[in-house]
Design a protein that fits this description.
With 272 residues, the chain is mainly alpha-helical. The protein has helices at residues 6-20, 33-36, 38-49, 60-74, 77-89, 94-108, 110-124, 128-134, 146-161, 165-170, 173-177, 179-191, 201-214, 218-228, 235-249, 252-271.
Length: 272
Amino acid sequence: MIDIDSEQLFTASQQLKGFIDRFVPQGRLTGALPSISTDYVKLQDEIMWGGVWQVPGLDVTLRSIATISAQCCNGWGFGLHHQVRVGLSLGMSPQKIKGIFLQLMFYAGIPATVFALSQAQRVINERPEWISEDTMPVSGDWLDSVEAKFQRAQSVLTNTSGANAVQSSADSLQAEFLPELHRLIESYEYGEVWLRSDLSTKERMACVLIALMCRGHWPQFRKHVGSCIDRFLTQREICELISQAGWYRGWPYVEDALGVVQESLAGSSVDG
């Protein structure tokens, strides 16, 4: 891509936008940009749609999930509207998009995810086919007992984060100072949400990675990178997820996040 010229980037951007913007309603906020700043539009089209979105190494669904996750953390309605619409246009189901916000409830918080769900529903309600898809049930075996959820959570933790994950969780500050809440949240997060069919484990890993990055939770980001690299996400995929979300959260976050990835890789080499 380094040898590509601006005209090629522009052409690539228009081809992608022609597909993902085919359901965009008239009068959206960013539709006024050409009359406000043509230079801004040029930068956005050539860097974002012609460049960032089309770099090899990450499939477009994961790029969309990363972007929706970042916009959830940002909390800007117009950005959420557009990216939810992009996800639906790419073939993601309404329930998959809502599943992103269920996953992020534990990482971005209640206000951000309630807002994101409400904005997503506004977009889903724009088209009859999306409304119809929204009624399709998601498989999830909700257990009645919190204890049963907790026991199932231990298995999920081990499968997703490694053999030491359960002990690491038990040794956490949350478990020490907030034992009841720690057990309750872990039971529902890993014993229920992680097992829903709306997102794959790989997609959930991507959601968590982006939320931790966008909120600047670097110690937990480092831990999460160590859990998912080369198990659910490759090094290249992690780096591409970071760059994708960084365009929406702010490019300095990319350097900070890649620094953590580098440290994690170095640590793995020493441990190995």
